[in-house]
Amino acid sequence: MKHILLLIASVCGFSTMQAQGPWKFQLLCPEEDIRLHIDLYEETINVPGMEMFGPQNGYLGGNIYGVWTVTSFKIQDEKTATLKLSNDLGSETQKVSLTQQSDSVYTMHFDGANVVKRVVGRKLVKLPSEFKMKIIR
């Protein structure tokens, strides 16, 4: 009986540790005014304007055209993850790599052709293909 209780306690403790791991946070790039909210352990994040779809693994928002939701991801290791984002209409997708540079700084890199844009004046302009983001505490 003791062994069963220890096994249950260790499994519960392990899942709690995972839910608070390195891939659950909010990032901000103040220069570009872009935010990335992710929880790659559970679907817990409500995407603004898309609450009717329920919680997701995250989204990219801020000074960009529309909201981009995390549709899939792969955690490479403790410092690198790859995300697949889809725009709010579902018509475009973008693969993004996140790499941890320090405790609170990550580099976000758009893989392949960058399709994430923002409105400047009356035109849609692509974002830079790479920029640094800081964890919001």
- Shape descriptor: globular
The low-confidence parts are 1-20
Q: Which structural class best describes the helix and strand composition? A: mainly beta
Helical content class: 10-25%
The number of E-state strands comes to 10
**N- to C-terminal separation?**
42 Å
Strand content: over 45%
Quaternary organization: single chain
Question: Order of strands across the biggest sheet?
Answer: 1-2-3-4-5-6-7-10
Radius of gyration: 17 Å
Kindly state the mean pLDDT as a whole number? 87
As for the number of domains, it is 1
Please give the count of helices: 1
Main sheet attributes: strand count, strand direction, barrel closure: 8 strands, antiparallel, barrel
Return the string of H and E elements.
HEEEEEEEEEE
Describe this entry's structure for a reader.
- The chain is mainly β and 137 residues long.
- It has one helix and ten strands, in the order αββββββββββ.
- It has an eight-stranded antiparallel beta barrel with strand order 1-2-3-4-5-6-7-10.
- The protein has one domain (23-135).
